Amino acid sequence: MNSNTSVQDNSTLEDLRKEAREYFKQCKFLKALELFEEILKNNQHSPDDQTSASTWNLSREGGKALADALCKNFTLTSLDIENNNLGSEGGKVLANAICKNSTLTYLNISVNELGPEGGKAFANALCKNSILTFLKLSWNNLKFGGKALANALCKNSTLTTLNISSNELGLEGGRALSNALCNNFALTTLNYESNDLGSEGGKAFANALCKNSMLKDLNLSWNKLGSEGGKALANALNKNSTLTILYLYENNIGFELESNNPNLVICQ
């Protein structure tokens, strides 16, 4: 291919991107996704094609169209669709697409009102998908759907980063996830901030840290751990040698935690 042809191709692809973005502004999601799919099929996607989705305002119907594209696409590796009002149904169809997609390694689907049923759908996807390594599901009101996600971690061996902060998962979700950490050998980063664990939830995570040898980055800030939860974690830190950073902001613990591990940074 000569340089003139290459320049012409790049110009055509940029025109397609501009046209696709204009369709999204008009809420003509299906047509826009067809254009992006044409770009992706030619292995000519740019970082903008992957990260600008957080401003697309997809909604539920747009989510379904995007799911269809993911089932057919074999080039996209990173997708950010934060704050798109997908809802439970949009989340379900997207989760189903993740079961079939074999290239996506990074997915941010935060702030999309997925709800408990959407959480269950993504739990099912994690049981079947062996490609995804990064998943962010914060601010989705998952509630009891978090328990299903925790159970999925016992079966998934590829996900290394999970952010499920601010989902009202509570004590039961925390217990389920801490149990999963005892049997998961892939996850290295977990953000469980603002999920109302309480002192008993803190004790459950402390027990997991005594057994888990993979987790390096753990965020338990804003979880009402209190002094009892803090004491349990303090004891666990003397047995854990792999954690490198632990966030414990705003937990009313009442004392500064310490560890024998010189590589561990505790932020509280």
From TrEMBL:
It is found in: Cytoplasm, Cytoskeleton. Gene3D superfamilies: Ribonuclease Inhibitor. Keywords: Cytoplasm, Cytoskeleton. SMART domains: LRR_RI. The keyword Kinase does not apply. InterPro entries: DRC5, Leu-rich_rpt, LRR_dom_sf. Coiled coil: none annotated. GO terms for cellular component: cytoskeleton. The keyword Cytoplasm applies. This is Uncharacterized protein.
